[in-house]
Amino acid sequence: xxxxxxxxxxxxxxxxxxxxxxxxxxxxxxxxxxxxxxxxxxxxxxxxxxxxxxxxxxxxxxxxxxxxxxxxxxxxxxxxxxxxxxxxxxxxxxxxxxxxxxxxxxxxxxxxxxxxxxxxxxxxxxxxxxxxxxxxxxxxxxxxxxxxxxxxxxxxxxxxxxxxxxxxxxxxxxxxxxxxxxxxxxxxxxxxxxxxxxxxxxxxxxxxxxxxxxxxxxxxxxxxxxxxxxxxxxxxxxxxxxxxxxxxxxxxxxxxxxxxxxxxxxxxxxxxxxxxxxxxxxxxxxxxxxxxxxxxxxxxxxxxxxxxxxxxxxxxxxxxxxxxxxxxxxxxxxxx
Length: 336
Prior knowledge:
336 residues; mainly alpha; Ribonucleotide Reductase, subunit A; 66% helix; 0% strand; globular
């Protein structure tokens, strides 16, 4: 089974071909940081944005500076060790590359947006000196650290602990914290600001959606193999976890929007977070708890591929060719 202890190395016969297809699709969706053009963003930051909008973006890039590093650590320290299928580990290896690419993207972003070395140092140390970011990091590390001592998932209780880590990883960190961050970027894009950041975020968004799909597929398969793992106590823990994640991200919203950003309120962000949390619960086959609508109309369009002239700017849906006759369709089925 998928969570059996050990290290299965046999790729044929393949037990979980869906993971191998996810790996192949990820290879086709390769991009590089050097393709992102930040030149117009600098003009926006200097002359088109308000002080409140600049505060928002500086806080956001400070979170980005460490967020994907936390995710990469969890991949290496926890997920790779316990998901016992070589085709799944192939995907996780590719995901680790993508997380490193995201770290490079946000490093470049920070170097570009925050030229002052002292301010940049503060951003990199955001976990220590920005309370709203420290609170989110504490939440992430609590769940990541929760299975550091788990050498092998031998018992059902061990596997429940691992699944809670994976649900936090996919549903709360990648599926809520990052999706909220993307919403701020797309809000600014809707005002005609920071198009370079938005273009790079499209590619990161696509990667993160695929990461989330992989994790939820792993959770679904583990539940199919051991249905009694996902008992009432487990479901209660998941709900508590998501409620805490919403509270953490609401505190972050209060910080980001503290200067009064025209067109976006803390109340709207809170409702969006609750909406996304319900989507994650439904992806787990659970009932929604907040039952609210998406208040951010600009996010409704985010799963529609860009209608951009390819020769003007490379669209975010571009895929690396994989040979004659290979499928090159991009499917964005992430729930907002």
